[in-house]
TrEMBL record:
Organism annotation: Hibiscus trionum (Flower of an hour)
Lineage: Eukaryota, Viridiplantae, Streptophyta, Embryophyta, Tracheophyta
Record bears the keyword tRNA processing: no
Key words of the record: TPR repeat
TPR repeat positions: 604-637
PANTHER family referenced in this protein's UniProt entry, alphabetically: PROTEIN NPG1, PROTEIN NPGR1
UniProt protein name: No pollen germination related 1
Amino acid sequence: MLCACSGEQFKFEDAPQSPESLATRDFSASGLSSRTGDWESKLEDDQVGEAESTLKEALSLNYEEARALLGRLEYQRGNFDAALQVFQGIDIKSLTPRMTMAIVERTRQRKPRSKGDIIPPTVMSMHSVSLLLEAILLKAKSLKELGHIREAAKECKLILDVVEAALHNGMHEGIAEDCKLQEMFHKALELLPNLWIEVGCLDEAITAYRRALVKPWNLDPQRLASVQKDLAATLLYGGVETSLPPHLHVWGSTTPNSNIEEAILILLVLMQKVAYGEIKWDAEIMDHLTFALSVTEQFELLAEHGEQASPGIYERAERWYFLALCYAAAGQNEVALNLLKKVSGLSETKREPHVLALLFGAYISSQDPKHAHHGITFARNVIDLVDEVNGHFKGEAHKFLGICYGNAARISISDSERALFQKESLTSLNYAALNMKEDPEVMFNLSLENAVQRNLDVAFDNAMKYSSMVAENSGRGWKLLALILSANERFKDAETILEFALDEASRTDQLELLRLQAVLQIAQERPKQAIETYRTLLSLVQAQREAQSSNSVHAKSSDTENVAERKMEMVAWQDLATIYSKFGSWPDAEICLDKAKSIEFYSPKSWHTTGLLFEAQSLYKEALVSFSISLSIEPDYVPSIVSTAALLRQFGGQSLPVARSFLMNALRLDPTNHDAWMNLGLIAKMEGSLQLAADFFQAAYELMLSAPVEAFT
């Protein structure tokens, strides 16, 4: 008789079956003889020893346990049909209460027992329980191999039901020392959710994962982390929304309200384990966390976890690139650009260049004129590194190079430098357009640069190409096209374009197009129509605000859209104040200015418009103060610079040199400002320099003929 783990002997609980009753019924179908000699002759050489030991052990087992052992042999040999036939002969349903009772009795915490506290002999040994649990597990695996996945999942779930019914608070550590119960249970924990996923029952799979995690089942840290990672992946990519059951709402108001919130919580726990060295680094955890935090736009949090990665996990350039992506997505372009500058630093000269990081640096630099020169460096590095095989990268680099050259031209002090940069800008953008014919961004920027340089016919053609290339409506494309038409004094055509665009535009674009329509109406001296257009714009903003306050769905609109709407509302009030000032409606103008300042008090345009209102009332000193406030907020605000110079010109005398200095500064910032050229001509005329004045007037006239109703950029 063999001894169990608990020290007790196995005895047959029922009368032994006759050799024919068990063997013939169970093994004739699989080709095995009931006699020991015939059985051994069918086994492979390397299985003989195992078969002999199993037969010896089977002499001390009851009917169900013998089936469990024989079924295991068939499974190990790959005879899944035969194994399934053997396992189906075990009446698990009637045995589960006894198995549960056995686990309860035999897994109590060891302590001195009283004489009356003796386990009854009818209680199964843990060895028997382990054998039967293994039989259920192998039956599930056999069903899986035969394609019966749903039935396999149900069998696997039975193991969890039996053990969990006995161990309400999880497993204590001593169980593994006695038997294979813990091993079988752990295998079932890991197998069950995979079976449900394979059959397409994701709800059941998520429930199975949660079941494996809510109690301490003695899983080692790495296996536990694997289950957590798989649950997070299923929650993220499964496409099925499952809320946490009430008994898992242990965090109160901070309980996850959606799959993605639960997945993020799990992944953050895993990242903490990695940081503390409890588990090994797993790139998949970071990949899942990157996806989850990107979808929820928590880019700064993602950057924090990227920074926590131990040295050596990422290459330095790759790490800087990843962090730059995070910070740029969070709106911190300055931080992102500083990280990308490290990629092209002296410390990386001996390493393989990171082309994507350099290209991304060129892109970020192209968004802000003050970084134009950094963008030129980034883009030129990419062009020098890539060959003709990587033509896409080269085309992208030329696109950003052209944009950066254009931005550099607009902030350049030297006329010769500005002319050079403008030429280089068009050269690079034309190269990009030639090599990236399907990229609408190239065509838009080529149109914009030509418009800025007053190549209006070319700009119009490129803008039309851009409009035909974009699949969806592009508000900025229609706006650029209307501005180009206005620069050619084709106001009716521009209004027609805007009327067409307004029907197709998104909410934010619609506000911008309405405002441009009003500006066109002002340019055609139709102020009443312009005022009505502004009223329509403001009513749309108000209606949207009311919808957000009453509708929870609209209230979740992005912060970017809300900021854009507030800015457009402020601009509308500023424009209305300008209209009322020109027509002497001082109280109405003041009301509009108060509305604009209530949205943003420190707006240079609001204070500039205030100065125009004072100037219209012949309050020149007050106007000068308002223009000064505008320039204190934004020193390079060209309209206030020109207006200050115009006031100083009217004072005459010693104010003329100061006025000239202001105007030269304005032309440095905006060489195409015809108002600045006009005022320079008036100053030259007052000083008696008639030829110089004539040149200035000629420049002002030519620029005014090609000036759009508002700046292209």
